Amino acid sequence: MGGENEYDTDFEKSESSDNESEGSSMSYDKNRIEKGLPEMFTQDEISDFGRELGLSKEAHELLASRLKEKNLVEKGVKITVYRDREKHFRSFFSHDKSQDLVYCNNIPGLMNMMKKNIYKPDEWRLFIDSSIRSIKAILLHNTNVLAPIPIAHSTVLTETFRYAEWKHKVSMFFMLF
């Protein structure tokens, strides 16, 4: 035996079943290492690795595919799982088609989905970045320890001035140096 078949055969013989304990899985890993065989990646390890590298969905899928080609993933690892990895967060966002704006409709819920009890409104500030063509709204943590959370985004903007309609007062502030 040689090449790919050796790895496949060894994998089939030593693979722990769903009914066996976690210790059996650890001995499987130890046996592979003792034999000089590469350690296999689990679905979670590939996900964590791709997240640490900041990979896009496409790059994440490519990484998993290449690892699978080299027989470096455990049996049952799904390559296409990264295509819709945002599906758990879709319910927290709405799309206003008239403005082509996507925005978060439940900020506390979104934050709790990411990490329990992390959202305390007084610890976050709103940052708005806009240009002629786009606008983004992002929540930034006051200590910058936690990652920024995007809460609104649009790439199609039209600039309108409707002060008379809304009866807003326009004030000017000039600084002279």
Automatic annotation (TrEMBL):
Renumbered residue ranges of the record's region Disordered: 1-29
PANTHER family recorded: APPLE DOMAIN-CONTAINING PROTEIN, ZAD DOMAIN-CONTAINING PROTEIN
Protein name per its UniProtKB record: Uncharacterized protein LOC106746434 isoform X2
Organism of derivation: Dinoponera quadriceps
